[in-house]
Amino acid sequence: MITGCSSKTDTGTAADRTAAVGAAATPSPSPIAAPDSPWAAFARLMDGNKRWVDGTLQHPNRDLDRRAFVAPEQDPYGVILSCIDSRVPPELLFDTGLGDLFVMRTGGQVVAPVVTGSVEYGPMTSGTPLIVVLGHQRCGAVKASYKALKDNKPLPGTLQSIAEALRPAYEAISQQKHADPVDAMTRVHVKQTAADLRSNADLAPLVKKGDLAVVSAYYSLDTGRVEVLTGAPSA
Questions:
Q1: Low complexity: which segments have biased composition (predicted)?
Q2: Are the C-beta atoms of residues 78 and 134 closer than 8 Å to each other?
Q3: What is the mean pLDDT of the chain?
């Protein structure tokens, strides 16, 4: 049983958790309840991204009270699998705060068993209702992998493992011409990754029941906008 990063304890109303922080601190919970459905979580993220695009950020859940409130346990409403790119910080581009998201970041948002396990953690242990696989414009990892696979010249060191993980997307886009093959490869890859997670033996039952949505999306470095590609939940 995983306990070290437990999302929820065996007991605990909001009042219990607040009391556990100590008499010196009297934190209050967020005035807006956490989304408890795929649609509500998706809408919350997209509203936050609109604020990011428009420059009307609210910076929610980033004060000392919030830190104290989530210290005893966490209950994030979203899982984000994104790239390590320094220009794509999920917490900022969705205008979220402390305790709102589980975030996994790998080169080219590629997955391996340990990453899949990390993505599964929230939905399987605490009912997190949303997973977003987020690719982005001008991805260096995808660009390097595309060139390595196209030229049949492996990347140095363990970097080649990223290229191999991206090979299915490369093979898919190689079947036709694209004005920007790297961009096309990025979009195909996030769609493939989301589809794989959606059909994952452990996550598929949650998706089928409507308790979980797995969305593929694409972030524009130029505009700050997140474009949904597949899997948007319905209200």
A1: 9-33
A2: no
A3: 90
Q: Do 99 and 74 form a contact (C-beta atoms < 8 A)? A: yes
- Whole-structure pTM value: 0.88
Domains in the chain, number: 1
Domain-located, residue 235: no
Beta partners for 217?
134, 228
Amino acid (one-letter) located at 185: M
* 172-197 pLDDT per residue, tens: 999 999 999 999 999 999 999 999 99
Instruction: Identify whether 24 is part of a domain.
Output: no
pLDDT, tens digit (0-9, with 9 covering 90-100), for 51-93: 999 999 999 999 999 999 999 999 999 999 999 999 999 999 9
226-230 and 130-136 beta bridge pairing: unpaired
C-alpha closest to that of 61 among 5, 100, 18: 100
Annotated binding-site members: 83, 85, 136, 139
Helix 181-198 vs helix 140-151: crossing angle, to nearest 10: 100
* Full domain range(s) for residue 43: 34-230
User: Out of 5-14, 116-125, 128-137, 208-217, which region has the weakest mean confidence (pLDDT)?
Assistant: 5-14
Q: What is the CATH number of the domain that holds 202?
A: 3.40.1050.10
The answer to whether residue 99 is domain-embedded is yes
Specify if 71 maps to a domain: yes
- Residue listed under structure tokens 């390097």: 144
Annotated binding site for Zn(2+): 83, 85, 136, 139
CA distance linking residue 127 with residue 199, whole number of Å = 17
